[in-house]
Amino acid sequence: MSKGRVLLSAATVALGFLHQMGAVAHGQDFYKGKTIHFIVAYSAGGSFDLYTRVIARHISKYIPGNPTTVVDNMTGAGGIIAANHLYNRAKPDGLTVGAWASPLVLQHVLGNEAILFDGRKFGYLGVPSPYDTGCYFGRDSGINTMEDWFAAKRTIKISSIGPGTSTSDVPKLLKVALRLPLEVIDGYKGGAEARLAVVSGEVDAFCGSWQATKTVWRSELEARKVHQVVQASLKPHPELKSIPLAINYAKTEEARLFLKIADNAHGYQFPYSVPPGTPPDRLQILQKAFMDVLKDSELLAEARKGDLEIDPIDGPTLAKIFAGLYELDSGTTAKLKEILVPKK
To answer: What is the DSSP letter of 27?
Structure first.
């Protein structure tokens, strides 16, 4: 290589470095005096809303320029409205962060025409903790164990936010995999309303995360107004060792496959993300701030007080997991579509 080429190469590297540093500096300057809007896909008072408000109260200190934060609730269609809005209408400027149901990615893979986004193109910040789904029954349901459920002489009604959420998809997969008598009642605005339907006796049960349930339903659990019958995750939560795993009741390979997909698609339930096309420097700032704020001592103290589990998974990891859903074979996706995608 000639001396001229060496000098040119060195100059190119130097220019690239300066450009990168300039982009980072620009991103850091950008947030000064700005407001970041957090859009929660579900109603106020639910676990997703609680997590978001705690994060929003503390994340500003980890973003250069210390922007203010606002939390808005955009309910409807099981989170689809908010996710579609984030993808298609929100400006990709790093000032809008959405929090919605990750199983909507699977709905897109399966061809749900209501899903107007590609799960591979969001910029993911992360999730505050894993999502361990279980099914919780009301005191008057008459169902206290899995044996009771299998032997039920009537169809068990389960409240749900809508297709593409664990509240809907997981019980539907349980129904097919384990041949359980159940009907999913979609259409509740959020977890708070769906849970209230159980306590009031409007429905028999609700399937949601333990992380959320032990927080927002603590008094009901302690009073035995509701109780957990089964875990849909592949491994027991450390606090629920006495609650059986659904997969232990599976009798076929197909049943086990469906329950594994239920866990894989729903275990990272509440991804914080930004629209496609968000400048990379701003995405990186938000990704770092998200992981840093979940180590913040004040946030952790507030989370402990509210019994919110904090065990974060970063954005790049989520991006790989969700991209993997697009690699399911055609036979499996056809069967899942029949089970999970709403009929026209």
So the answer is: H
Q: What's the fold here for domain 133-266?
A: D-Maltodextrin-Binding Protein; domain 2 (3.40.190)
Q: Which residues are CB-contacts of 223 (< 8 A; sequence separation ≥ 6)?
A: none
Q: Which residue has the tokens 């959420």?
A: 165
**Residue 325: exposed, middle, or buried by beta-carbon count in 10 A (0-12, 13-18, 19+)?**
buried
Q: What's the pTM value of the predicted model, to 2 decimals?
A: 0.79
In the chain, domain spans? 7-130+268-340, 133-266
Determine the CATH number of domain 7-130+268-340: 3.40.190.150
Q: Which residues are paired to 272 by β-bridges?
A: 99, 126
Amino acid at 320: K
* CA–CA distances in Å: residue 23 to residues 36, 166, 318: 20, 39, 25
Sort 9 into a burial class: Cβ within 10 Å, 0-12 / 13-18 / 19+. exposed
Supply 270's token pair: 């509440």
Nearest to 206, CA basis, from 259, 262, 269, 161: 161
Identify which of 158, 186, 161 has the alpha carbon closest to the alpha carbon of residue 174.
158
Residues 6+ apart with CB under 8 A from 92: 274, 275, 276, 277, 278, 279
| Residue whose structure tokens are 């998200």 | 290
**Given this chain, do its domains 7-130+268-340 and 133-266 carry the same CATH topology?**
yes
Please state, in angstroms and rounded to a whole number, the distance separating the CA atoms of residues 168 and 186: 7
Q: 275, 92 in Cβ contact below 8 A? A: yes
Query: Mean pLDDT for each consecutive 10-residue tract of the chain (344 residues)?
Result: 41 45 61 98 86 97 98 92 98 97 91 95 96 95 98 97 88 97 93 94 95 88 97 93 97 94 85 98 98 98 90 95 91 94 80
Q: What count of other Cβ atoms lies within 10 Å of the Cβ of residue 331?
A: 8
**pLDDT at residue number 11:** 44
Rounded distance, CA 271 to CA 314, Å?
10
Residue 259, Cβ neighbours under 10 Å: how many? 25
What is the Cα–Cα distance from 309 to 239, expressed in whole angstroms? Answer: 12
